[in-house]
């Protein structure tokens, strides 16, 4: 089947020239991407399109197809001064460079493309290490001046990375494993393997460990997750909620499920569980003095210049912004390139045994990561506005969540919401949309934004953020595992259901009395929209302080974790780190959160 492809005349480097309206034997996907009106009967979401048996295509078709995408697979930057944009941009479009080689054979071109993608993936790992170096320094600074009471909250709102992943990166950067760090920065070892070395590899054992990593690695198959629906799904969600409160730390479902099963198998008594939940976590050890001698050739030096430890917090924030500007562009390129090359079978042309070997050896990804990147890659390919948002700071993690709920109509609306909520709030909202009714959740946020704008317009001087920008909004903080009962199935291993049933039957949280009942009302979750931590150690806070006449009523109370309560709301000093004030917006109760750097969030209750 042939399609009229409207494009400017150009030589694709393969001896083929496309006229302004020339005939090109490309698949339906290409015509739809360039002219959506050409195929009106095809669904707008890529998830239902790029499935089934892939038609065999010649090498010429595959590479020419990819070449047409070269301009769009460019590493776009956010608005950057001309003096720094060139140094941060790095190479020209990687696919264009790899494909525009007319004198080479088709196999050589496929291998050249593989090499180019591999180089780009190594650059991405180097950028992540450079970011980890800055964050390792930030961890030693006082971030309370920005209104953050924990390093995890700072990571969520300012960086967009998970705390557990960053802890692994910081452990690697802070370790004495200089040889492993240099090998990782050079792209010889995938970063996901290197972060496992601290605590397991001694300084003297680095060479042996590196030799072992150089051997072919057999990736463990991810645990099979069954689809659970109905009452059983509700039971698993409730057990996960209880486990998060008792465990008292942020954790993914896989970690929570493993702990559920462990407690169930040991039949831990309820008193022992609650006593463990009430224990304060040990104070983290003082960080060791940082030594940067190992990075004489700093990671990503060709893109960001030589390494210079941040002089202060402002310098650190500037370096983080510069790194993320480059990294976001490369993340978008790699995700889209992987989706396209996998769909067209480039791994076969390049001689790999499977697509997962291709993902591991070229991109440095596990099978699960490759599957996730494929989904978000197609979302970026199909929704250019989402791709632009990633390059402008949204981040690939948020784009991955958005890709599970958006369609052609809701994509720009969700992106508009993303500009008016914090990163943590966006993640909670998207999780609620995934496990409930997406359009209903979207409508709630749009309604909240409209009410907030109306409220600010009535008194812009006192209600607008002092840090610039527009007032952000948030909904009441709810449990991340909450879902519409009986509406959305959950995924879990076969052993989780029995453990979950035991948890729901045996684990009962103590009820608060009097003003302490605020904790039960809020589900033992910190209501700070930039925190949201679940723990039994939450504290009840008077919005209108008792010393100023505040009453011991539920309406005057909110739940706060201990760091947000003592380091933020009751920090004292000339400048309060966090303030929470009860307000009424269009006859609805709300809390106006004000942070030390001028940010303001209007949270509807």
Keywords for this structure?
605 residues, four-stranded mixed sheet, two-stranded antiparallel ribbon, 27 helices, globular
Describe this structure in words.
The chain is an alpha+beta fold. It has a domain at 443-480 and 510-604. The chain has helices at 28-34, 59-68, 82-89, 94-99, 106-138, 151-159, 163-174, 178-185, 191-194, 206-214, 230-247, 253-266, 270-278, 301-304, 313-343, 346-349, 355-363, 367-382, 384-394, 396-402, 411-418, 423-434, 438-458, 460-463, 496-506, 517-521, 562-569, and strands spanning 3-6, 10-11, 17-18, 21-24, 226-228, 472-474, 490-492, 539-542, 557-560, 578-585, 588-595, 600-604. It has a four-stranded mixed sheet with strand order 6-12-11-10. A two-stranded antiparallel ribbon has the order 1-4. It has a two-stranded antiparallel sheet with strand order 2-3. The chain is globular. The N and C termini lie far apart (56 Å). Residues 1-105 have low confidence and may be disordered.
